[in-house]
Design a protein that fits this description.
Blueprint lengths: L4 H9 L5 H11 L12 E4 L8 E5 L4 H9 L4 E4 L16 H11 L3 E4 L2 H5 L4 H9 L1 E15 L2 E18 H11 L8 E3 L5 E11 L4 H7 L3 E5 L3 H13 L5 E5 L1 H4 L3 H15 L5 E4 L25
C-alpha cells in the first residue's frame, strides 16, 4: 500500500505541545466556567512547560490508572472524577490519593480533572448518552448555561431532555442503554412496566436523584441516571402515581454512565491541537474503575424475579 507522503510530512511538521497548551485546548472545548460551584475540576498536578506527547483518559484517578498512564509514557492523565474533591492536609505515598500523585509525578505525568464542566458541555457525558440512545431535540434538564464554540451558541447545562424519533418500550430502551455502556458488575435497575411506551427521555450521567423536581417539570416518560437511593426514588414514584402520571426510572452504574465521552474528547483535543500546530497521541483506559466486582440476585429464588406490584 503506498504511503501518503503529504500526510507524513504534515505530521512531521507538528510540534510537541506543553502541558499548558494541552490544558488550554481541553478547556477551550470543555470550559471550567461550566463546572458546578462545589466542583474541583482543573489541573491538579503537572509542570506547565513539560512536553506532552501522549494523553491517557480515565474515569477515575486510581493507583491502577496512574500506573497505566506512566507505563503508556503519558505526559497527562485526564480523569472525570477529581482526585481531591474533598480537601486533604497531607499526601504521603502511604495514602491512596498520595500514592496516585506520587506515581504520576514520579513518572512526569500531570493530572487534570474534568468533571461537571464535561457533564454540562457540548460533547460531554450527557450529550454522548443522548447520542447512543438516539435522542433528538435535546435541551438541558436543569441549570441551563450557554457555551460558545466556533462562534455558535449552544444551550448546555445539567442533564438533558430529549425525544426518541421512534417511540419504543421501556424494556427495549433499557436494552439499548445496556448495550451502549461498558460492562460492569451492577446491572441496570428499572422501575416501570416493561411494555410501557417511551418517547420523551430525561437523563443525567452520574448521581442524579437531586434532580427529581426538574424531571417532574419536564413531563418525560423515563428518567435515566445513576446512584438512585431508596427514599428519593420511592417518593418520586409514589408522587407520580398520586398525580396520575407514569414516569419510569432506569438506574445504571455511575462510572459506566460517565465513560462514553472520553474517546470523543480525545479526538477533539487532538484535532484542535493539530490546528494549532501540535501533535499528541491519546488512548482511553480500558480498566474498569467501577468499585463493584459482582452481584448476587436475591430475587431469583425460583427462577423468576419477584415484584411488589
Amino acid at each position: 500500500m503506498p504511503c501518503d507522503n503529504s500526510a507524513m510530512a504534515e505530521q512531521n511538521t507538528l510540534k510537541t505541545p506543553t502541558l499548558e497548551q494541552v490544558v488550554r485546548a481541553f478547556h477551550d472545548l470543555y470550559p471550567p466556567t461550566l463546572q458546578a460551584g462545589w466542583d474541583k475540576s482543573g489541573l491538579i498536578a503537572g509542570r506547565a512547560q513539560a512536553p506532552v506527547e501522549r494523553i491517557l483518559f480515565a474515569v477515575d484517578a486510581l493507583d491502577a490508572t496512574a500506573r497505566e498512564a506512566v507505563d503508556y509514557d503519558a505526559g497527562l492523565m485526564i480523569t472525570h472524577h477529581p482526585l481531591l474533591l474533598r480537601g486533604v492536609s497531607f499526601l504521603p505515598d502511604t495514602d491512596y490519593k498520595g500514592s496516585v500523585l506520587h506515581t504520576l509525578i514520579g513518572g512526569a505525568c500531570g493530572l487534570l480533572a474534568a468533571h461537571t464542566n464535561v457533564d454540562s458541555a457540548v460533547d460531554g457525558t450527557n450529550d454522548l448518552l443522548c447520542e447512543v440512545l438516539g435522542l433528538v431535540d435535546c435541551v438541558p434538564l436543569a441549570e441551563p448555561q450557554v457555551q460558545v464554540r466556533d462562534g455558535v451558541e449552544y444551550q448546555v447545562g445539567t442533564g438533558r431532555v430529549g425525544r426518541l424519533e421512534q417511540p419504543t418500550t421501556l424494556r427495549e430502551l433499557a436494552q439499548r442503554l445496556a448495550q451502549a455502556l461498558p460492562g460492569v458488575a451492577a446491572p441496570l435497575r428499572v422501575a416501570g412496566r416493561a411494555d410501557q411506551m417511551i418517547e420523551r427521555v430525561a437523563l443525567c450521567s452520574g448521581s442524579g436523584d437531586s434532580l427529581f423536581d426538574a424531571v417532574r417539570a419536564a413531563h418525560v416518560d423515563v428518567y435515566i441516571t445513576a446512584d438512585l437511593r431508596h427514599h428519593p426514588a420511592s417518593e418520586f414514584r409514589e408522587g407520580e402515581r398520586a398525580a396520575g402520571r407514569e414516569c419510569a426510572l432506569i438506574d445504571c452504574s455511575h462510572a459506566a454512565s460517565e465513560s462514553l465521552w472520553m474517546q470523543r474528547a480525545g479526538e477533539r483535543v487532538q484535532a484542535l491541537l493539530a490546528e494549532r500546530g501540535y501533535a499528541v497521541e491519546f488512548r482511553v483506559s480500558e480498566l474498569n474503575t467501577d468499585p463493584w466486582d459482582f452481584t448476587v440476585d436475591t430475587a431469583e429464588t425460583d427462577g423468576s424475579a419477584s415484584t411488589l406490584r
